[in-house]
Amino acid sequence: MLGRLRRRSRKDLPPEPSQADATPLGWTTPWGILDWINIDPTGLIRIFGWSYETSERLHPPRLRLGDDVLELNKLYRCFRPDVPASPRPPFAMPGFVFEYLVPEAWLLRPAVPVSVEIEGHPPKVIQPRPFTQPGLYELFHSKRVLGRDQIYGFGPPGLQVHPEVLALVESTRGSVLDFGCGAGPLVAAMRAQGREAFGIELDRGPIRDALLAEAAPYVRLYDGRLPMPFGDKSFDVVVATEVVEHIEDYRAAIAEIARICRRQAILTVPDMSAIPLGSRHGLIPWHLLESTHLNFFTQESLFECLKPFFQRVNFGRIAMTRVQETVYFVSLVACCEMADFEAAIDGRA
């Protein structure tokens, strides 16, 4: 078997992942080939290879994270159509993956070198990108059977405003209301720039606990009933980022946004075109695990909701993401203008 393994040319090797975190190994052992190691920023480290030996005869490399030795998390097989046919049918899955898991406490520290060691080869030392703490880290190792509510859930509001949302709002003029402001990061950012900015949010414990001190004096907590406690055309700009998909009567919410808006409204919702784009990869955007999503918009359906209230609606996308060669966007953006918008920016209204 070893001779057959060694006769492979470089062009016969499996395609390596396109991420910068994939490092070739090309190690030959008496029991198989180790092709590459993938160090994912989530803390999952995988060594990919192939062999016709049974799993019990495979020897996992030693992995060191700094001075710590990482224990093997799991070993599993996979198909490898790029390798020669098995000489011992019906051995259908010659590929194997050694999987290691960086302890969760390490994810909050600066990245340190990862050393891969196996008998017969000099150690391979790799400097990974900084680790990040992923959502649902428990799914890498949990022995519990989890319920739907433990997967599709919701957590506390974010404490930072997305930079592309911030750039959109910065391009506007006048007073701002952040409808569904969460912890108030947009309000705080606009206030720091000298803008007149306010927020409105549901009065509930997680919001009160997370509310930023610099935004709190300008955020109104209320019971969520419409109409909102503001007069007609109270704000030059109304922003609703990732909000209307959570509201059962989304048409009434859009009508309210238009009522209190004097010049412009900016709305973002999850971009549903990401689902068919990701389907061939078997992936959906992380944001869609949010359990409180009630409405799912396309650009066309959102336009139908907005056009009765606004003279112009221009669409955009934010948070571009790539999965291999597929590009999708996390959110759909609608930039809406009232009928007298041109007069307003010219100072005539």
Features of this protein?
349 residues; alpha+beta; seven-stranded mixed beta sheet; five-stranded antiparallel beta sheet; 9 helices; 16 strands; 32% strand
Tell me the layout of helices and strands:
Elements: H1 2-6, E1 22-29, E2 32-39, E3 44-50, E4 62-65, E5 68-70, E6 72-78, E7 95-101, E8 114-118, E9 121-126, H2 148-151, H3 163-170, E10 176-179, H4 185-192, E11 197-202, H5 205-210, E12 219-222, E13 235-241, H6 250-260, E14 261-270, H7 274-279, H8 299-306, E15 312-323, E16 326-337, H9 341-345
Parallel strand pairs: 10-11, 10-13, 11-12, 13-14
Antiparallel strand pairs: 1-2, 2-3, 3-7, 4-5, 4-8, 6-7, 8-9, 14-16, 15-16
Could you walk me through the main structural features you see in this protein, from its secondary elements to its overall organization?
There is one protein chain. The chain is α+β, with helices and mostly antiparallel strands. It has 9 helices and 16 strands. It has helices at 2-6, 148-151, 163-170, 185-192, 205-210, 250-260, 274-279, 299-306, 341-345; strands spanning 22-29, 32-39, 44-50, 62-65, 68-70, 72-78, 95-101, 114-118, 121-126, 176-179, 197-202, 219-222, 235-241, 261-270, 312-323, 326-337. Strand 4 and strand 5 (68-70) form a beta hairpin. The protein is elongated, with a radius of gyration of 26 Å.
